[in-house]
Amino acid sequence: MFYSRPPIEPLRWDLVGLPTPNGSRNFDALTADGRPIDFRFSSGWLTVERGEVGAQRDDCAMEEVLSLPISPFGTMDIEAEQICDILGLSVNGHAVVPTGNRLDRGFDWSGRTTYWHSSHLMTYQGDAEALIRKVADAFPGSVMVQPTWQGGALKVRSRRITILSESDRVVTIGISFETARLDKMLIADDVPTTEFEGVFAHRIDVIRADHDEDLTGKTDIESRGARPLHLDYEVLRHRRYRIQMEYRTDDAQAHSIMQGLLAIIDEHFCRNFLVVNLETGVIIAEDTTDEEDTRSYSRHLRDWCLAKSNRYVSVGLLGAPPYPVDSTPTFVGFRPMVRR
Questions:
Q1: Is the per-residue pLDDT at 292 higher than 70?
Q2: Torsion angle defined by CA atoms of residues 109, 113, 118 and 119, in that order, rounded to the nearest 10 degrees
């Protein structure tokens, strides 16, 4: 998913003052005509709600005006001035100018930087390694580097690798670099993170993001009463990886690299599921939603599932939690959808 300055139609509301922080993720504001406004920014999502004219914030129903992802998951910081700027809000009749172009370790809201983040499910055996090799081979002269951050995120130690092992959590594919500068970084005990980021004109980061949890859903449905039913299904343990790239929006070479990477992603991964009732084996729905970009799965995982009719990428309960205490759960499996 691409992120830059979000293309939001200006709301053109005039506020009586800058939005004020209310907790770690919320901002409060009031329009010139007396409407209470709530802004919430959490993990990359921005939600805006508005009350009626003259309403008291704590006593009125708020109408949701918009809710959408405007930056990669995990982005936590946004300033009041930036909220006004990207939403087209004024304060006492005057346009709001952001105080800076980018927060430390944050997001560039100006539009001068483009970010691409995507996440994918891959099997334990050889899947990620095959993807990394495809990407590296697609860009001759690239190098694979494994960074390890020291003392937080300020310093990093790196080593050059030729293959990705199963235990590796992060690999950077560096493209366009000065060999002497790279060699100096690799022999150093550690270097500032800014130097690591500056060595490569372009880089693609692949990060294992599952932290060893069970992504199959098997443990969850068994804890919710599936075990006594003796359901006939198989799931294969897999991992989630995040792939990301960051570049100047006007960088033509970066655009070319990005298109090459997207072609590899399209070749290696699939989306969309059939939802199957695990007790009856009946297909009850098609699931093509993926707003947060978490449900792409490798063709390797797809082919494993399609080899037998009782195999699934993951299993779970129909609907979203919290589930009613007295409800009878419907256990479902998510099976690759194959378009003919």
A1: yes
A2: -70
C-alpha–C-alpha distance, residues 145 and 126, integer Å = 19
Instruction: Give bridge partners of residue 116 from the DSSP assignment.
Output: 2, 245
Query: Is residue 159 within a helix (H) or strand (E), and if so which, with residue range?
Result: strand 155-161
The whole-angstrom separation of Cα 16 and Cα 329 is: 50
| pTM (two decimals) | 0.87
Name the DSSP letter for residue 182.
Answer: H
Q: Is residue 101 part of a domain?
A: no
246 and 150 in a single domain? The answer is yes
Tell whether the model's pLDDT for residue 50 goes beyond 60.
Answer: yes
User: How far from chain centre, in Å, is Cα 117?
Assistant: 6
141 & 38 share domain: no
Instruction: Find the mean pLDDT for residues 253-266.
Output: 96
Nearest to 33 by CA among 94, 97, 93, 87: 93
Query: Does residue 324 carry a pLDDT above 70?
Result: no
Q: Quick one: how far is CA 330 from the chain centroid?
A: 29
Residues 136 and 255 in one domain: yes
Cβ atoms of 200 and 246 closer than 8 Å:
no
269-285 burial, b if ≥16 CB within 10 A, otherwise e? bbebbbbbbbeeeeeee
The answer on 178 and 74 residing in a single domain is: no
Higher pLDDT pick, 101 / 168? 168
Same domain assignment for residues 65 and 120: no
34: pLDDT confidence band, cut at 50, 70 and 90? very high
Residue 248 clears pLDDT 80, i.e. is over it:
yes
Q: What are phi and psi of 205, to 5 degrees?
A: -105, 135
pLDDT at 191 over 80: yes
